[in-house]
Design a protein that fits this description.
The complex is a heterodimer of chains A (547) and B (266). Chain A has helices at 2-10, 13-43, 93-96, 146-194, 200-234, 267-283, 296-327, 332-344, 349-372, 387-411, 415-423, 428-457, 460-465, 492-501, 506-541, and strands at residues 50-55, 60-70, 84-89, 100-104, 108-112, 118-122, 128-137, 140-144, 237-242, 248-252, 256-260, 286-287, 292-293. Chain A is of the alpha+beta class. In chain A, strands 6, 7, 8, 9, 10 and 11 form a 6-stranded antiparallel beta sheet that branches. In chain A, strands 4-3-2-1-5 form a 5-stranded antiparallel beta sheet, with no helix packed on it. Chain A has a two-stranded antiparallel ribbon with strand order 12-13. In chain A, α4 runs antiparallel to α5, α8 packs across α10 (387-411) and α9 crosses α10 (387-411). The two termini of chain A are 52 Å apart. With 266 residues, chain B is α/β, with parallel strands linked by helices. Chain B has a single domain (18-261), classed as P-loop containing nucleotide triphosphate hydrolases (Rossmann fold, 3-Layer(aba) Sandwich), CATH 3.40.50.300. Chain B has 10 helices and 10 strands. Chain B has a 6-stranded mixed beta sheet with strand order 6-7-8-3-9-10, sandwiched between helices. In chain B, strands 2-1-4-5 form a 4-stranded antiparallel beta sheet, with helices on one face. In chain B, a hairpin with a 2-residue loop joins β9 (230-235) and β10. In chain B, α3 crosses α4, α3 (116-126) runs parallel beside α6 (165-177) and α6 packs parallel to α7 (195-208). Chain B is globular and about 55 Å long. The chains are: A alpha+beta (547), B alpha/beta (266). The A-B interface holds A 414, 416-417, 419-427, 430, 434-435, 438-439, 541-547 and B 66, 68, 71, 96-100, 103-104, 106, 108-113, 122-123, 126-127, 159-161, 165, 168, 172, 175-176, 179, 192.
Chain lengths: 547, 266
């Protein structure tokens, strides 16, 4: 019995099994995690049918089924062991206060799916599940009854959505640009007044600027009037809704983004709605403390931050690696530097955040402000968190990765290439630029890939250097100079933290957390794929043995 | 004939101008001495081969001739090496110019990861030739000189790595020829090649020596006997015997040489 066992040990199979088990466990964990995120995330976009539950106490509950779970600690007599309950999304937060309600299985008398219940997606207070009682224009009745109201409602929603877009455009772009004009004129006036007492020419300038401000302000008044008219139209119609238990609630049509009757809709149409839901999450701005609406600003912020970081980290890391590997005299000093660089990769990211705050924001940004934007002080321009400082902080955080893999890439360039080039009369620099660096590019890109993956997922340092839960505007827009590196930004990783753990409405925020996670992973994968495709292209170009 | 050194060639050679003169050359890697008192004269437009067992310093000597050993840290050279009467290690020598005049072909073919055309054009471009027509001409001349033109003229833009081993080595020769050197150093250029490819390169040497001086290091004594006019036998960092190839291989004056070429050791 012992001899075969010994033989088995000696065969090395145990070792192979151990290795295989290690790989399998890692893969299982990765795919398990992905599966969990995908299932929970993608489920959010599906418009489930609306159920109407009649309870044994004659109460009605109306909403979308969100899940069934075993009642926790269900061993007491009124909660017998092993019983389950339903989690129903009842919406109507303005009436009930909570979006979700738990209904024990044994309380339910009947369960129906009436086709006439409407789902109203609203700009505030979340979804509403109710029947229509009447539609009003001001005080006058326009339509009465559920079906007549439904028919009357649809065109009204289209009108108000168009009005909403118009209002947003005026508020954001037109009034926004007027405000920028006023602000800039004021800053110029301040800059002129800040120096010595203004002479006649300067006074003339100041008067001109003041006239500009006055003109802009009158334009602003016109726009406000226009807005007022639009807002009156926007709030002209209202709809009276009645919930499962007969409670009535009148809401302006302008509050409704979309009205659906999910129980009437066919499968194909639902798939279409699914796709529109996905698109709207990817392309719109958040609503309701980020728990609803889209995550577009966060996607944009994440991608832009990673790109700025890459632009900063690659030249920096590559130059450092070139010096360490090719020019520095190999000795104890270089070895110490290398150890220090490697250890830098292990410093907690929050420490980099604190450094970024102290160095980039206070020191560099503060100096920039006093030198170039003194008229805006004490309001900081660069002396506060912004996408540039956050990106540079992350570049510092990830520069060791780029240095290490660039050094490896350089070390892998065959000596024959260098000698071949030198023997033709090339200088060291020419050899470096024309032969060595091109051959080391795949290694450099590997470093970039690793650093992008790390940077995109980092949250802690960003919280100190410029991320916010809701940014009023994107770092890139139509107003000069188009790229606003001083602006604060939103980030998917921080969005997960904020929505999932800082939100007052945890249950409603859950799906958003999964979706954001899914999008973050997708963004990282896409960014990496781009770099990987580029690397493979280069590998092919510079591939080949030296015989 | 007595000491085997500085034989005057007695066959139909031309002017016998001396291209490279090595005078009492000692070479050190740190504390370790690799070359001992080398005295050799290399004649213009002739092929000179260095033979000897592994580790005898042949390659080191070759790499001293274009100062490629400068890359190694802690090396030191004593004595003089003259190229056309000018000290290679003199203070006013521009290494770039030196290496332009003294080309080199390595043991392992080392084309750059670029196209065939770019490989050959690499040197001329470095030395400031930008004109496309001029470059085309140089590339063609180089490839013709290396006997590769007919094989690759239709795929100049293809990767150099697509060539066979022998073709790659001839591409390296073409690359070296493109900078118009006076001297071509070859460090065991055929050791990784099959007999057919080797034969092609050996043929090439006969045409190359019309225009330049060739110094070749080889393990293969038959090769040395076939291609070279002059042969130096090296052992443990010293030149044991240097003379006309005919003499070295027929009537060596030293016993060590005789033992080596007859295969008794090495």
């Amino acid at each position: 019995m012992r001899a075969p066992f010994k033989k088995f040990l000696a065969s090395g199979n145990v070792f192979i099994w151990g290795c295989a088990a290690g790989v399998s466990v890692s893969l299982l964990m990765v795919f398990g995690l992905l599966l969990l995120i995908v299932i929970n995330g993608l489920g959010y976009f599906w418009t489930a049918n609306i159920v109407e539950l009649t309870l044994k106490d004659k109460q009605h509950v109306m909403g979308q089924l969100a899940g069934r779970e075993v009642i926790p600690r269900s061993i007491t007599p009124d909660r017998p062991e092993g019983k389950s309950r339903l989690r129903v999304k009842i919406g109507n937060r303005d009436i009930y206060g909570l979006d979700f309600k738990w209904v024990n299985d044994d309380q339910i008398a009947s369960e129906t799916y009436p086709p006439d219940i409407a789902l109203l997606e609203r700009r505030e207070w979340g979804n509403m599940y109710a029947r229509i009682k009447a539609v009003y224009k001001g005080e006058t009745l326009q339509a009465e009854g559920n079906d007549a109201g439904w028919i009357a409602l649809a065109p009204l929603i289209d009108t108000t959505n168009a009005l909403y877009q118009q209002i947003t455009r005026i508020e954001r772009i037109e009034i926004g640009s007027i405000n920028t004009d006023i602000e800039q004129a004021r800053l110029k006036i301040r800059a002129l007044e800040m120096g010595a007492a203004p002479d006649t020419r300067e006074r003339g300038q100041i008067d001109g600027l003041k006239a500009q401000v006055a003109a802009a302000e009158s334009r602003y008044q016109e726009k406000t009037l226009e807005l007022d008219t639009l807002r009156t139209q926007f709030n002209e119609y209202s709809v009276l809704m009645v919930d499962a238990n007969g409670r009535e609630k009148q809401i302006p049509v302008g509050q409704i983004i979309r009205a659906l009757r999910p129980n009437e809709i066919g499968l194909m149409h639902k798939c279409w709605i699914y796709l529109t839901n996905v698109w709207s999450v990817l392309s719109t701005e958040p609503r309701e403390a980020n728990t609803e609406g889209g995550i577009f600003p966060a996607i944009f912020g994440t991608v832009m931050m990673v790109i700025i970081m890459s632009l900063a980290v690659v030249p920096f890391g590559v130059l450092a690696a070139l010096y360490l590997r090719e020019y520095a005299r190999q000795g104890i000093m270089v070895r110490l530097v290398r150890i220090a660089v490697n250890n830098l990769a292990g410093v907690p990211s929050i420490v980099f955040g604190v450094f970024g705050l102290g160095f980039f924001i206070y020191a560099v940004g503060g100096t920039l402000d006093t030198l170039f934007f003194p008229e805006r002080l004490p309001t900081p321009t660069f002396g506060t968190g912004g996408i540039l400082w956050a990106s540079l902080t992350l570049a510092l955080l990830t520069v060791p990765v780029v240095i290490v893999s660039t050094e490896e890439g350089l070390a892998a360039v065959p000596r024959e290439f260098r000698e071949g080039s030198l023997a033709l009369g090339a200088t060291k620099l020419e050899t470096m630029l024309k032969v060595v660096i091109p051959s080391a590019l795949p290694g450099i890109l590997t470093g970039l890939i690793l650093s992008m993956a790390r940077a995109a997922g980092e949250v802690a340092p960003l919280m100190l250097t410029g991320v916010v839960k809701l940014a009023p505007s994107l770092p890139v827009d139509g107003s000069w100079p188009f790229f606003h590196f001083d602006r604060k930004f939103m980030h998917l990783g921080f969005h997960i933290y904020d929505v999932g753990f800082q939100s007052p409405n945890v249950e409603a925020a859950k799906p958003m957390v999964y979706i954001t996670t899914l999008v973050l992973i997708t963004v990282v994968v896409l960014l990496n794929l781009t770099a990987i495709v580029l690397r493979n292209h280069l590998r092919k170009k510079y591939a080949g043995s030296v015989l | 004939m007595q000491n085997g050194l500085r034989q005057s060639p007695d066959h139909d050679s031309k002017d016998h101008a001396v291209k490279l003169t090595l005078n009492q050359v000692n070479f050190f890697y740190g504390d370790r001495q690799a070359l001992f008192k080398i005295d050799v004269e290399i004649i213009t437009n002739q092929v000179t081969s260095f033979i000897g067992p592994s580790g005898c310093g042949k390659s080191t000597l070759l790499r001293c001739l274009n100062r490629l050993n400068d890359l190694v840290e802690g090396v030191r050279l004593e004595g003089t090496m003259l190229l056309d009467g000018i000290d290679i290690y003199g203070p006013n020598v521009d290494i770039t110019d030196l290496r332009k005049r003294v080309g080199m072909v390595f043991q392992k073919s080392n084309p750059f990861p670029k196209s065939i055309y770019e490989n050959v054009a690499y040197g001329p471009r470095l030395h400031g030739i930008r004109n496309r027509g001029r470059l085309d001409q140089i590339v063609e001349e180089g490839l013709i000189g290396a006997g590769l033109w007919e094989e690759v003229k239709d795929r100049l833009q293809a990767s150099a790595f697509g060539l066979s081993g022998g073709q790659q080595q001839r591409l390296c020769i073409a690359r070296a020829l493109a900078v118009k050197p006076d001297v071509l150093l070859m460090d065991e250029p055929c050791s990784a090649l099959d007999p057919v490819a080797t034969a092609k390169i050996e043929e090439l040497l006969f045409s190359l020596k019309q225009d330049l001086t060739v110094v070749i290091v080889t393990h293969n004594m038959q090769q040395a006997a076939r291609v070279s006019d002059w042969t130096a036998f090296m052992y443990l960092g010293e030149v044991v015997e240097f003379g006309l190839t005919k003499q070295i291989f027929t009537t060596p004056s030293k016993k060590q040489t005789d033992d080596y070429i007859t295969g008794r050791f090495g």
